[in-house]
Design brief:
The protein has about 220 residues and is of the alpha/beta class. The radius of gyration is 19 Å and the shape is globular. Bound molecules: guanosine-5'-monophosphate.
Length: about 220
């Protein structure tokens, strides 16, 4: 008998899984390949939302305001901080980056899963305030490989690369803060691993809402 054909479909939420959206905090040291993994995730999980951060860093070639980031002035960013509009913010490599409460609230209201791609400082802030998210960390296969990837990328001078590597080493030490670790050997596989984590999170008993009244009754009655 022939084996069944490989199921290449994207993982879908099953009926038994919770339907409320989950925020996922996602971090990786610079050079780990987070952007490529996110591109794979976008095609694997078309319903997954990506939080668009505010930043004071200038756009890189090809980046679009309102799609990749909201590119704002330092004054505008500082006003956002003063007005309490940011859920978290951090200074990364000389620029400000922050996530607005409005972005997260909209996803929660609409029951959408949200990927909040932020650095380790931001993740620490959210942990500190017991923000109810699932925290995922993407690791390079080794520090050697991280250094080679940064050099191959060719966007930074050697002293900048050393700075990114030193920051990366510190960030990896923060791994215990996260719920899940994914190693990026192959970005397509790393994206599949993350999709599997997301699906499993929807099946946690703590989030489970039984579809049928008779089962819900069993779960809420004392006898
Ligand atoms: P890049 O300038 O390469 O796009 O991002 C630099 C770093 O800033 C990355 O580690 C990225 O995850 C982080 N980052 C992007 N948006 C936010 C944010 O809203 N808050 C925090 N804390 N970090 C962010």
């Amino acid at each position: 008998m022939n084996p069944p054909p490989e199921d290449k479909s994207a993982p879908q939420r099953t009926q038994a899984a919770s339907t409320a959206g989950i925020p996922f905090v996602f971090s990786a040291p610079s050079g780990t390949g987070k952007t490529t993994v996110c591109q794979h995730l976008r095609s694997l999980l078309p319903n997954l939302r990506f939080s668009i951060s505010h930043t004071t860093r200038p756009p890189r070639p090809g980046e679009v305001d309102g799609r990749d980031y909201f590119f704002v002035t330092r004054e505008a960013f500082e006003k956002n901080i003063a007005d309490g509009e940011l859920l978290e913010w951090a200074r990364v490599f000389d620029n400000y980056y922050g996530t607005t409460r409005a972005t997260v609230d909209a996803a929660t209201r609409e029951g959408a899963d949200l990927l909040i791609e932020i650095d380790v400082q931001g993740a620490k802030t959210l942990r500190g305030m017991e923000f109810p998210a699932v925290f995922i960390f993407l690791l390079p296969p080794s520090l050697d490989e991280l250094a080679s990837r940064l050099r191959r990328r060719g966007t930074d001078a050697e002293d900048k690369i050393e700075m990114r590597l030193a920051t990366g080493r510190e960030e990896i030490r923060a791994l215990p803060l996260y719920d899940y670790a994914v190693v990026n050997v192959d970005p397509a596989q790393a994206a599949r691993d993350i999709a599997a984590i997301m699906q499993a999170e929807h099946h946690r008993t703590g989030r489970f809402s039984a579809p049928a009244e008779d089962i819900r009754g069993l779960l809420t009655s004392d006898d």
